[in-house]
Amino acid sequence: MELINQLVTELQNLPGLGQRSARRIALYLLAKQPAQLVTIAELLKHAHDSITNCAICGNLGEQSPCAICQDSKRAKNMIAIVENVSDLWAIERSHCYHGCYHVLGGVLSAIEGVGPEQLRLNDLQKRVQSLIKEQHKIELILATNLTVEGQTTAHYISKLFSDMNDNSEGGSISITHLAHGLPAGGELDYLDDSTIITAIRARS
Hints:
Order of helices and strands: HHHEEHEHEHEHEH
Low-confidence stretches: none
Shape: elongated
Helix content: 40-55%
Mean pLDDT: 88
Number of helices: 8
Distance between the termini: 56 Å
Radius of gyration: 20 Å
Oligomer: single chain
C-alpha cells in the first residue's frame, strides 16, 4: 500500500486533482490499464528527456528555437507577453494571432516573493533592444491574466518599456492590452476561443 499511496500523493500534486480524483486515477491505471500505465510512464520519461524551453520566447517544444519563433511568416516585431505556456497555447488555439510571444514564467507577487528578477524580463528587454537597433516599430501586447497579480505585472512592464521608449534611438515601442472583454479574475487557459479572438482583435 505504501507505493500506491506514494503514487496517489504524486498525482494529487497535479493541478486540478484532489485526493479522491488522484486515488481514482491511480486505481484505474493499476487495476484495469497496466499497458496504458506503462505507455504513460514511457511518454513521461521521453518528454523529460526531449522537451525543452525555447531560448527566445520560453515556449515548450522539442527544439529551440521553437516552431513559432522559427516561422518566417510571424511578425517578429509583435510580441504577446503571457504569464505561462498554457496562456500561449490558449491564444494559439484562436488562430487569429500571427505575431510572436514571450513567456514570463509567472507574475509579480510580493506574498510569494516573486520579483522582476524571477521573471524573464531581462530576456524580453534584450529582444526589444535588438529590434529597436534594427529600426523596428515594436508592439508589445500585454496578455497577462486579469488577476490582481497579472494586472500588477502588466503595469510594471508598461512602465518599464515606456521608459525604454523614451530613451530609444531608431525604433519605437507601442504597448497594447487585451480588450477588457475578458472576465475579471479569469485565466486565458479556461476561456473559450471566441472570447480570446474578440480580446485579441479589440486590444487597445
